[in-house]
Hints:
4 helices; about 75% helix; mainly alpha; two-stranded antiparallel sheet
Amino acid sequence: MSEKKKESVLAGFKAFLMRGNVVDLAVAVVIGAAFTNIVNSIVKGIISPLVGAIGTKNLDVYTSCLKAPCGVDAKGEPTGVNIMWGSVLNATLSFLITAAVVYFLMVLPMAKYLARVEARRKAREGVQETMVITELEVLKDIRDVLIAQRSGNGESAPAASAPRAQGARDAF
């Protein structure tokens, strides 16, 4: 492989990695993995005991038997057809808690921050626009005063500055 092609492949790979969405995705995966342990702890330490006040602390034991006899035989293998809806409920609660934590602790504050930044940017643009308009008005006033002075005195401006004054007048 030639040296030039090798550099272009590496440069392309670097450009791919440095794109914003790839970096954002990598951050999301890392943060998601970190939140998994927290959420599992909340489900096992808080949610499951609250549900356990009604039934059992372990949601995985909630099942429904479709075909009897449901249970475990002497060899340790399951018998019958068992629907384990408790583990589905446990996974659903884990997902909802994860989504709530991500939304309330990350998405919502970031959206508020970005809205404030955008409002500040728009306010700065408004001030800058006002300054540009005011500056333009001042320059027009200066032009008008200069034109009035020339025509009022009857004196003509020096030949060197006459084209500049005409050009300045046309610019506005």
